[in-house]
Design a protein that fits this description.
The chain has a 7-stranded mixed beta sheet with strand order 1-3-4-2-5-6-7, with helices on both faces. By secondary structure, it is of the alpha/beta class. Helices cover 34% and strands 20% of the residues. It has a single domain, classed as P-loop containing nucleotide triphosphate hydrolases (Rossmann fold), CATH 3.40.50.300. The radius of gyration is 16 Å and the shape is globular. 38% of the residues are buried.
């Protein structure tokens, strides 16, 4: 078991301009019920660092957490939230603006629900990240929800849906701790490498 990430909540901001300077930053994006808050809690080995809500779409701001080497930003989830189209478009613009304009951003973790696979919204997000040359890592959540007899097939199908090799995807379970050590190492490596480059 690796050392938990020492994540500390700093602030919530409505726009990218209001975020403080960071030597290196990693963003977390995904659908509203993909388990972003649960994953952040698992990475930090804390139960209530990021608030887990039973209502999808509760995260409406850019939530910034400080850690060794830089910062992590939890972005508003897309899809499912019971909000107006106007507000949804505003969230989308805010997210895209952050991903394009945030200079310290070194990597985006795109969370995909491992139980259901990539949706059309996930595919749109992947296409957008590729089209705009935003570095990303696909993380498949809810590994524990996939029956062991179906995991190998699901790994292949999910990877194909993301147009990636199965080995390029990190599978995790916030509930059972599967893949959490690997993801912690990936976060640390990305922040340390790019943090040093920015010095």
């Amino acid at each position: 078991m690796s050392t938990p990430l020492p994540l500390r909540f700093v602030l919530s901001a409505p726009e990218v301009d209001e975020l403080p300077h960071s030597p290196a930053e990693l963003a977390v994006v995904g659908r509203s019920n993909v388990g972003k808050s649960s994953l952040l809690n698992a990475l930090a080995a804390r139960k209530a660092l990021a608030k887990v809500s039973g209502t999808p779409g509760k995260t409406r701001l850019l939530n910034l957490f400080e850690t060794d080497g830089g910062t992590v930003v939890d972005l508003p989830g897309y899809g499912y939230a019971k909000v107006s189209q106007t507000e949804r478009r505003a969230w989308e613009r805010r997210m895209h603006r952050y991903l394009l304009e945030r200079e310290p951003l070194v990597l985006t973790l795109l969370l995909v629900d491992g139980e259901v696979g990539p949706t059309s919204l996930d595919a749109e997000m992947l296409d957008w990240l590729r089209d705009h040359d935003v570095p990303f890592q696909v993380v498949a959540t809810k590994h524990d929800k996939v029956r062991s007899s179906k995991r190998e097939r699901r790994r292949r199908d999910l990877a194909a849906g993301c147009e990636l090799d199965p080995r390029e995807i990190v599978w995790v379970s916030a509930e059972k701790g599967v893949g959490i050590d690997r993801l912690r190492a990936l976060v640390r490596e990305a922040l340390a490498r790019d943090g040093r480059a920015g010095e």
